[in-house]
Amino acid sequence: MFLNIFLFITYPIAILISTIGYGLSFRKLFLKDSSSFLNLAVTGILGLFFLYLISFLSHLFFPHNFLHNILTLLIGIFLCYKFRQNIVKDELKIIFSLFFLLLIGFFLSKTNEDFPYYHLPISLQFVEQKLQFGLGNLNIAYNHYSSLFLINSLFYLPITEIYLFNLTDFLFQILFFSSLLILLKKNSISDFVKILIAIILLVFLAKFNRLAEYGVDIPGQFLVTLSIIYCLIFYINENKLKNKENYTLVEISFYLMIFALTTKILYSIYFIIPITISLFFFKFKNLFEYFLNIRFLSISILGISSVFFYNFVNSGCLIYPMSSTCFYDEFSWSLSESTVDHMKLHYSAWSKGGIGAGYGTQDPKSYVTGLNWISNWIDIYFFNKVSDYLLLIIFIFLLIYFLFVKNVRIPIREKNIFKKFLITYILINFIFLYWFFNFPTLRYAGYSIVSLILVLPFVYWITGKFNINNKKNKKKFLIILIISIIIFNVRNIQRLNKEFSLPQSASNNYMNFPFYWIKDLDYFEKKKEFVVFNVVESGNSCWATPTICVSSTEINVKKVKNFIIYSREK
């Protein structure tokens, strides 16, 4: 047990250092100019993005086994040492302080429902196999590609084996919250943006205290939120910044947005914000100079094309399950048109409250037509999930108002703030409407857009009613932050205590402490052509069963130029 605890703490520290190293090298290679707003935590997030791009290319030829991952880890640590002169010690202290303050949330037993079904098996697929075609024919859920699975696979390391796959979400948690804290310390940021950051920090810290909730949904929401914040830092402060710094801020925003897109393609709608701001405030000549260059284009094209590539490789569709992007007859591994259409309808009905706990419609096609779904969505989903989140946000609004807002008027430092707020808010409302009428569930970008649609007008209303840079107010906020972190830890201690009391026979017990619980499944081997399938009982999730794990071997297998292709009879 002591060895496990030692590795449980030391490996993440080493990986965090390595990630920062990749971020520092990314800054050196792909950011034309520096910015005082590019802190070490955001650098770490860009490091995760860089790691994803590298692992995407390496997986074309190699599985992400121990050797691959150890080399990747050591190279990152070396890069961190090489670029150590760019590390701000105060920022590093904040990152590691949060690392240890929130570490208890990393002790994870219960995982989300999709983890054994496809999150864990796909991550293991990247670990144990190089690129294969038609994985969607093994399990329909394998069509749900996310960059987070590739990043997960990099944390398969000696001794710990599969048990650090939850580290990806923990890194996003630490780096996102750290980036907001570091930004709050900068006096040069406008009051409007600083208040926005403070409220977002409190809301997200209160809501996302369980890593089991994260899955592949929450990191992307962190990324788009941070991207929008960087857009607003530029937007509100534009007259005070050097021209080159303006472009760098927007450039960072684009990279964060591309990263979000790789986690889930539905985040593509958020690009409307950095694109609109760029078109409004930059001359076309300068846009070409800064954004149509080999440096920016290479990263952008590689990041975006990776999503289309893996969708195509898994399903035969560039954007699954969008039927118009599918090549049904051209490639042997392509899913059938009926399968794609069926799954598209299924996902639409599920996101609109038509399928799930407490309700299941017999006619999903009719249910999702027009506005037929709204009344049920309100009854089943709004008054179950959304209302709780709204109450949390309102509580934080009241807390901020009664503790900080006074009947005074402080001159606003920024010009044309109403115009800038209005343009931003119109864009946010457009995204909100798109979200609501297409996939109105909080895990599908809902937390970020619902937060922004409520928080932005509140921030505009209270900006100028108190001085956020006042020492007394800073102390008040620090106390609230400390209380929030204490609540975060208390809730996780209660969770741990409950899970420690589970019998050994129960799911999610702590027999693997401090790592999360894995269900051992019985399986048998069945060779077909040159592939050995590990067959589990029909209806079972694969969990950590060695690849290739299936519940049925009614699959055609062939090899083309050393790449394995799976297909089914159409």
Task: Provide a descriptive summary of the structure in words.
This protein has helices at residues 2-30, 40-58, 66-82, 89-101, 115-128, 147-153, 167-184, 191-207, 218-237, 243-263, 272-281, 284-291, 294-315, 337-351, 364-368, 374-404, 417-438, 442-462, 471-500; strands at residues 355-356, 359-360, 523-528, 531-536, 549-550, 556-560, 563-567. It starts with a helix and ends with a strand. It is 59% helix and 5% strand. Among the domains are: 189-292 and 382-469, no CATH class; 336-372; 523-567, no CATH class. The protein has 570 residues and is mainly α.
Short description, anyone?
It contains 19 helices and seven strands.
List the helices and strands and how they pair.
Layout: H1 2-30, H2 40-58, H3 66-82, H4 89-101, H5 115-128, H6 147-153, H7 167-184, H8 191-207, H9 218-237, H10 243-263, H11 272-281, H12 284-291, H13 294-315, H14 337-351, E1 355-356, E2 359-360, H15 364-368, H16 374-404, H17 417-438, H18 442-462, H19 471-500, E3 523-528, E4 531-536, E5 549-550, E6 556-560, E7 563-567
Parallel strand pairs: 4-5
Antiparallel strand pairs: 1-2, 3-4, 6-7
